[in-house]
Amino acid sequence: MSLSKFFVLSVLHHRPMHGYEIVQAVEKTTNGCCSPTEGTVYPMLNEFEAGGYLSSKREVVQGRERKIYGLTDKGRDAFQTAVAAWLEATDCILAGKATADAVQHSQGRARSP
């Protein structure tokens, strides 16, 4: 699962939201690291909904009709699976960095008089 999709499921894991609110929440949650556009989020929401990961309902929010998206049980399960996968990937990245740091450190010692 891509990081963008992961972050969308992540913000919806907290509560149901409408599309623009999801865009804002992802940007805020990631401190601007991931700034999806509505043009990328809405197709993703449609894909998640078609796959049974999200459900939606129409509500009036601030005088405007909005489509509110929420995770289904399948969506919550997919999010938990994605969390485990991204944690595993993070562990691999951190292990690689530690190895690279150790090699760099040992090479620095070997060059010292």
UniProtKB/TrEMBL annotation:
Transcription regulator PadR N-terminal domain: residues covered: 8-80
Entries under InterPro entries matching the protein: Tscrpt_reg_PadR_N (IPR005149), WH-like_DNA-bd_sf (IPR036388), WH_DNA-bd_sf (IPR036390)
Pfam families: PadR
SUPFAM superfamilies: Winged helix' DNA-binding domain
The protein, known as: PadR family transcriptional regulator
